[in-house]
Design brief:
There is one protein chain. The protein is of the alpha/beta class. It is 35% helix and 29% strand. The protein contains nine helices and 14 strands. Strands 1, 5, 6, 7, 8 and 14 form a six-stranded mixed β-sheet that branches. It has a five-stranded mixed β-sheet with strand order 11-10-12-9-13. Helix 1 crosses helix 2. The longest helix is centred in the last third of the chain and has 17 residues.
């Protein structure tokens, strides 16, 4: 087959040659894990992954000649199977010192996202930081990163839920005094759950990190797809596609 394709490239003409050359340049395919409960960035709708980050990842790889298949799974599992090499990558990961050496990273973040500290709406507190939370119980979601200052602080007591919604239900029931969540994700949770309306307020910030695809060091094509993504991401930023997607999701 390869010799036949080479003959076609040297000028042999015909339908068979065009088909062979076309197949030889067919787009590569990569399968990535996508967070299944993180709207508006990435969530499972029906059987498909949808969201702002999903669209950015798809278009960036498309610009580099790579088709993407998304496997929507819970974030903690997504990162674990990527680390083991079962998946080529997982998003959206807030790159920090606890993850840095376990994965491969592309050059520029997909986007930045502010992480708020939430308390009941009648709280009088404001301007809290991770340092302010030392000795306190704080609701978090399994596997999520909240910035180095929080993630590496062992003096903070964590109450772990499987989903942001579960954490906010604990906050509503006064089972925890604080809940951490990415601002746009929290807003989506509040919109989905009408009983949350007006019940919480942001009383501080832990970080405003960049979010990335964490690529696998153990997957045989992990490093290759990092470079493909870098190439495609640069393209969609320059040609305006990134901005167009961003506008669609505002």
């Amino acid at each position: 087959m390869q010799k036949f394709v080479q003959r076609c490239k040297r000028g042999v003409v015909g339908l068979a040659c065009m088909t062979a050359v076309g197949l030889s340049y067919a787009a590569e395919t990569v399968t990535l894990g996508a967070e299944d409960d993180w709207a508006p960035y990435s969530s499972k709708v029906g059987s498909e992954a949808q969201g702002f980050a999903v669209d950015i990842v798809r278009e960036a790889f498309k610009a580099a000649g790579v088709d993407v298949k998304f496997s929507p799974v819970p974030y903690a599992r997504c990162m674990a199977v990527t680390k083991s090499g079962e998946l080529a990558g997982c998003f959206d990961a807030a790159r920090n010192s606890t993850l840095e050496n376990d994965y491969l990273w592309h050059a520029k973040p997909l986007f930045n996202a502010r992480i708020n500290i939430y308390a009941p709406a009648d709280s009088k507190e404001s301007g809290l930081t991770p340092k302010s939370l030392e000795g306190k119980v704080v609701g978090v979601t399994n596997g999520y990163e909240y910035g180095d200052e929080f993630d590496t602080n062992t003096k903070i007591k964590r109450d772990v839920a499987n989903q942001d919604e579960q954490g906010f239900r604990k906050l509503l029931a006064n089972r925890v005094p604080y809940m951490l969540a990415y601002e746009k994700v929290a807003n989506a949770v509040f919109t989905k759950n009408k009983e949350f309306a007006g019940k919480f307020k942001a009383v501080g910030i832990t970080a405003d990190p960049g979010l990335y695809i964490a690529f696998s060091k153990k997957h045989p094509d992990g490093a290759k797809f990092v470079e493909k993504f870098n190439q495609g991401f640069e393209t969609i930023v320059k040609n305006g596609k990134y901005k167009a997607i961003e506008v669609q999701w505002k």
